[in-house]
Structure formats: structure tokens, C-alpha cells
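P.,

For your records, the input lines for the assembly:
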Amino acid sequence: MKPASFEYVTARTVEEAVRALADSEGEGKCLAGGQSLVPLMNFRLARPPLLVDLGQVDELRQLRHDDDGSLVVGALVTHREVAGSPLIAERVPLLAEAAREVGHAAIRNRGTIGGSFAHADPVAELPCVGLTLDAEIVAAGPHRRRTIAAADFFQGPFTTALAADEVLVEIRFPASGAERSGWAFCELARRRGDLAVVGVAAQLERRGQRLSARIGLAGVAGRPVRAVAAEAGLSGATPDAASFRAAGEAVAASLAPPSDIHGSAALRRRVASVLTERALERAARRLEAA
Amino acid sequence: MSERVFRFRLNGTEVEGRAEPRRLLSDYLRDDLGLTGTHVGCEHGICGACTIHLNGRAVRSCLLFACQVDGAEVRTVEGLADARDPLSPLQEAFWEHHGLQCGFCTPGMLMTAAELLETNPDPTEGEIREAISGNLCRCTGYVFIVDAIRAAADKLGARGAERQ
Ligand SMILES: Cc1cc2nc3c(=O)[nH]c(=O)nc-3n(C[C@H](O)[C@H](O)[C@H](O)COP(=O)(O)OP(=O)(O)OC[C@H]3O[C@@H](n4cnc5c(N)ncnc54)[C@H](O)[C@@H]3O)c2cc1C
Ligand code: FES
Ligand code: FES
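C-alpha cells returned:
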């Protein structure tokens, strides 16, 4: 229950962090909030020979909106800050709602959005929202910075498109362009603050008379997934109880979730269906009120 | 691996620390500084017994390396009461309302509740239960802990009112 020995360096800039990772030939690891990495190290499931502490890298704490209307959240912004930020509540309220479901207060005080994306737990809330809103991930490597679509970033359980010598710099949430929208994040966890068994992110968007839906699911596959069939079924539909039930059924029909100690495949399929319906209902109420 | 030197404020006093990078803050506080008030249960973030305040926020000391507190302000359960009183009003309320039996979870409960009352001085029962959801207690059944935190909120509220 104690970590193995490692070298520890604090980086002051993204470039310094990248250089330290590159010098370690892919063996080093970034340390952000430590809420996922340190438990793994204490169990010795992870034994990185080098930790690059990002805590002093101010660039990673930014929270701003860009000229194109997108909201930019720096990798070190904590779950607590995401949950409480007025800017996020205004621009990407779905993300704020999801952040409130992450762990407990003490975990949210330290854990970061960048760490959550890089860790890529298949049941994690924030990656699911990133996928649902077509977020883009900015990564810095030794030679350049690149932008990765969320759909390409999450590749499998605890596996992302980040290279071993890349630092996740920020996550960009593009402006939806909708005149009005309603959102909801719903999850089932065994106890308050536990990792979710299944989570559902939903957003309804209105452009003119036209309705469209975004639905993302966590805990039903090795990575977050979009409920493509359910989204298509709701496109242009009337947002009512019948269409939401149909969306829930479409979700159930499209999934082949894994079974594990936290829930069987059948449970996950059923919960995903029910939570999709509930999330859409709550999103629709907010759309009405908008 | 070579030791690192770090400076921080611990319960109001400047400390110059020295530890290997792998030294967990929880072990550093308990074994190197002798501050055994901070308890260690699971060492992976689940039980909450090791909760302390880092720059005013409740955090798990088992998920921090000691050298990470360089430049920070750390408060442990030993620093909850000010020098004149043996117990803070929150600690008193735990005593009066039987908010502890074996006492293993107590330091973490206190540090968690202290942050709650600093940010939300008048919490509902639901908010209290939500706040301590990350702190496991195997003895009390939580009811008296919730009572104690609510009573502390009343105590602190009354003090605030007196001062005005
Ligand atoms: C009791 C408990 C309950 C929890 N409950 C939940 C929950 O309900 N939902 C949930 O999603 N999570 C939960 N978590 C995990 C928590 O959300 C973590 O904060 C998060 O998964 C990782 O963020 P971090 O900043 O702590 O990252 P760290 O632990 O520091 O790092 C995690 C991984 O990401 C890498 N990394 C971090 N930042 C960067 C970066 N900028 N660039 C490149 N790589 C990087 C690290 O190298 C490491 O591999 C829980 C944790 C605990 C202990
Ligand atoms: S010992 Fe730190 S949370 Fe259990
Ligand atoms: S009093 Fe014994 S664990 Fe809480």
C-alpha cells in the first residue's frame, strides 16, 4: 500500500513537462490531481519511474471562451471548479451538472478534468460529456500541438490517443449554435459518490423549429459512446414522452454492454434505457424553460 | 532516490520538511512529525480517514506526496481548535452528540465537516449526508454524526449572531 520509488520533477511550463516526459523515453507520467494515479501507485498497479508534477503550470489552469464562441477548459481545472464556475454554467451547463456527480467533495477538490480525460475510465462522467458535445482535446508533444476530436481520443478502457510524451493542455467545447437548449446528466451509482454503473448525458437543441438531440452513454462499453440511433430518431421529432420512450428503447436495442461485478449486461442495458428516457425528460423541461 | 526539501505551513507554523518523493503525506504527518491525529485506513482514497485541509480545502492526505505541499498551507485535526480551547465547537458537538465510538473515522469526519461548515454554514440534513458520503464509519451508523454536524452549525451560527 505504499508506492514504489520514483523520480519527481515539477514542471513550470507545458514545454518543460513535455521535455521531461520525452527524456524518460515514455516511462514518465504526468501527475495532476493524483486521485486516480496515486491509488494505482499505492497498489503498485502503476510504477512509473518518473512523475512530472503539473501543479505549477499556470497555462493549464485557464478557463476562457474563445472568439469562435467555444469554451476552453485547461487540463488542471478541478471538478470542483467545473461544477461551480458561472462561465461553465452559462456555456456548457451539461458539463457542470456531470462534474457534481464525480466522486466526493474531497475528490472534486483535487481531481482535474485533464486527469479524468487522460485516465479514460469507461464509466467516467466528464469524458462522456466531452464525447456528447463533440469536444476537442489539445495535446502538446515534443514537436507540435495537435487537436484531437473526442470521438478519436477515447480508444478503449483507460486508453486514449495521447502519446506517452504528450501533455493534455486543454479541452475545447465548441459553441452549439442552437438558439435554445436543454440538458441533463443522469447516472446510477451504488452509493452516492461511487463510480457510476451507467451514466447518460443528454442535450436537446433547437434551431428555428428544428429539434436535434445529443445522447452519450458511459459504462456500457470500453469507452463512452454516442447513442446514434436514438439521436437520429429524435431528429425533427416532437419532444414528448412517447419519443423519449422510443429513444430509450433504441438505446437498449443498440447496446451489448459488458458484465462485471458492478452490474450484469442486462442490468446495464435496462438502466441505460431508463436513464436515457429520464435525462431526455429533464432536458426537455429545461428546453421549455429556456 | 534522493530526498526533497519542502517548506509549508502546518497548523499555522512554518515547517521545513525533508522526504523521499514516494513518502505519502499521511505517513509523513504521522510517522515523521508524530501527528497521529490523521488516520490511515485504505490508502486509496476511499475511506476518508486521512482527510486534511490543503489551502483550505478538504483533501485525502494518502493521495498526496509529502513534497507536493511545498508552499502550501496544511491543516490537520490537531489544528482544528485554536490554542486557547481544547476543542473546537465542531469537536465539542461530536462529543456532546456521541458522534464517535471507536474514533477511527473521526479526524476525517471532522475535517470534512469543517470544510462543509466553512462553505455552507447552515446545511440541511441532506447536504450533511452528501458531504460526508466519502467518509466511512463502521461504528455509529452516521445518525449521531449528522446530528453533531447540525448542532455545530447551530452553535457556530449562534456565536456569529452574538458577535454582530
Ligand atoms: C474515492 C474516489 C472516487 C472517485 N469517483 C469518481 C467518479 O465518480 N467519477 C470519475 O470520473 N472519477 C472518479 N474518481 C477519479 C477522479 O475523478 C480523478 O480525479 C480523475 O479520474 C483523474 O484526475 P486527476 O487530476 O486526479 O488525475 P491523476 O490521478 O493525476 O492522473 C490520472 C492519469 O492521467 C494522466 N494525466 C493527468 N493529467 C494529465 C495531463 N494534463 N496530460 C497528460 N496526462 C495526464 C496521469 O499521468 C495518469 O495516468 C474517483 C476517485 C476516488 C479516489
Ligand atoms: S486512508 Fe486516505 S482515504 Fe482511506
Ligand atoms: S467511530 Fe468507529 S469508525 Fe466511526
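Two observations worth noting. The longest helix of chain A spans residues 265-289. Chain A has three domains: 7-53, 60-173, 180-289.

Regards
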